TrEMBL record:
InterPro entries: Aminotransferase_I/II_large, AspAT/PAT-like, PyrdxlP-dep_Trfase, PyrdxlP-dep_Trfase_major, PyrdxlP-dep_Trfase_small
Gene3D superfamilies attached to this UniProt entry: Aspartate Aminotransferase, domain 1, Type I PLP-dependent aspartate aminotransferase-like (Major domain)
Record field: transmembrane: none
GO terms of molecular function: aminopeptidase activity; pyridoxal phosphate binding; transaminase activity
Protein name: Aminopeptidase
Cofactor: pyridoxal 5'-phosphate
Similarity remark: Belongs to the class-I pyridoxal-phosphate-dependent aminotransferase family.
Keywords: Aminopeptidase, Aminotransferase, Hydrolase, Protease, Pyridoxal phosphate, Transferase
Keyword field contains Signal: no
Single GO BP term: amino acid metabolic process
Length: 421
């Protein structure tokens, strides 16, 4: 038996609804009317979308990447019904053991385990989440190999769920160099790259720019361009013979699964990937809104004595409530699962614990989503996008007041637990 055991929180993961797993953070906003129109027009099509994506969708995907300085030739892109389907196909096609950062997106590890592939979590550096610490990565790879393992795939994300951080280029470069030195293939999950809270102040570099021959990029379009309930994702393969082979094997897996994007969703995805003005305007407005809510979440957690890196992307905040352990223990909270139960009940919204993302069960960490604080009628949610002071809207203010109240109570409890000086 290997001494370096892959980690599996299986029994805990089943807590809650059947096979519970936290979904990606939603935006809490009405669907863009232009997307609804495109989807409705395509709903009358009798023919289905080809496996791997039709010409219109793949052309739009190549245009999307070209505008980001990463052109892709025909035959080097595929589309699938969501990021999980593409990651499953990539994992099956590449074979071997899988490495992921700790913590990581909740949907990464289950698909490797579904295929019977060991998954090894690697600690992240102090600066950010989403990428492994290079020295810990090297140590993990060499130890796994020494014990009979076969690590081949590293999954990472520069703009990260769950930590909402963006990896600095120098930190990413060290991790990519370490992975390349060990012959790993990298899958870069770039679902959240278009949700930078301060794009003029944040430098985002894709691993594919540093190691183009060994990086496959995956983007789940529900991250910023499509509603969460319209599953579609795109992948861009390396421009090499190895990339051609991987592309072919991934198509084989998708074909075996009949994993194709629904034709109406494919039409909407192609429209969104073309980035017409209604889409770019909505994305920009949504990012500004979620950035403000995330800052308010961060301020509430820090004011209560918790820890959290400032959110830089996405629709979420990753909070460490370890400094409030004594106060939480008075409420029967001693691990991440109990913290999830406690906060979900108090806040009236899902608050998945860090163990859902591969973090230590004993660590009191939790992901809080900004979209949940915007929930209301369609009119109220639309008003969030147009108001100059969205945090002062009654339904948003009420949700924030409840959240601050819960954290303020924990702070007060913690102060009562402080020993006298």
């Amino acid at each position: 038996m290997r001494r370096t055991e892959p980690e599996d929180h299986g029994p805990v993961q089943d807590h809650g609804p059947v096979r519970y797993g936290p979904p990606p953070p939603t935006d809490g906003l009405p669907v863009l009317p232009e997307l609804v129109s495109v989807l409705a027009r395509a709903a009358g099509r009798a023919e289905g979308e080809p496996v791997g994506g039709g010409p219109a969708l793949l052309d739009a995907a190549r245009g999307y990447w070209s505008r980001r300085g990463a052109p892709a030739e025909p035959g080097r892109t595929v589309a699938g019904p969501g990021g999980p389907a593409l990651l499953l196909a990539l994992t099956a096609a590449l074979g071997g053991d899988v490495l992921v950062p700790r913590p990581c997106a909740a949907w990464w590890a289950p698909y490797a385990r579904l295929l019977g592939r060991p998954v090894f979590h690697v600690a992240t550096p102090a600066e950010c989440g989403g990428v492994p610490d290079p020295y810990t990565l090297l140590e993990t790879v060499r130890r796994v190999r020494a014990e009979g393992g076969d690590p081949r795939l590293l999954v990472l994300s520069v703009a990260d769920d769950p930590t909402a951080t963006v990896a600095p280029p120098e930190v990413l470069h060290e991790a990519v160099e370490a992975a390349a030195g060990e012959g790993l293939h990298l899958v870069s999950d770039e679902t959240w790259r278009d949700t930078l809270h301060a794009p003029q102040e944040t430098v985002l570099v894709s691993p594919a720019e540093m190691l183009p021959e060994r990086v496959t990029v995956v983007s789940d379009l529900a991250g910023s361009l499509l509603p969460a309930g319209w599953p579609a994702a795109i992948a861009r393969f390396p421009g090499s013979a190895d990339g051609d082979g991987l592309h072919a094997r991934v198509l084989d897996v998708l074909t075996a699964l009949d994993a194709r994007v629904a034709a109406p969703v494919a039409a909407a995805a192609a429209y969104a990937l073309g980035e017409p003005e209604p889409v770019t305007a909505r994305v920009a407005a949504a990012v500004r809104l979620h950035a403000r809510v995330a800052d308010a979440l961060h301020a509430a957690v820090v004011a209560a004595g918790g820890l959290a890196r400032p959110p830089r992307a996405g629709r979420h905040l990753y909070a460490d409530l370890g400094p409030l352990r004594e106060a939480l223990s008075a409420h029967g909270v001693g691990d991440a699962q109990e913290l999830e139960d406690f906060l979900s009940a108090r806040l009236g919204m899902p608050a998945p614990g860090g163990h859902r993302f591969g973090d230590d069960l004993g660590a009191l960490r939790v992901r809080l989503s900004t979209g949940m604080l915007l929930d209301g009628t369609d009119e109220q949610r639309t008003e969030c996008l147009t108001s100059p002071t969205p945090l002062e809207l009654p339904h948003v203010q009420s949700a924030l007041m409840l959240l601050r109240s819960v954290f303020d109570d924990l702070r007060d409890d913690a102060q009562r637990w402080e020993p006298p000086r």
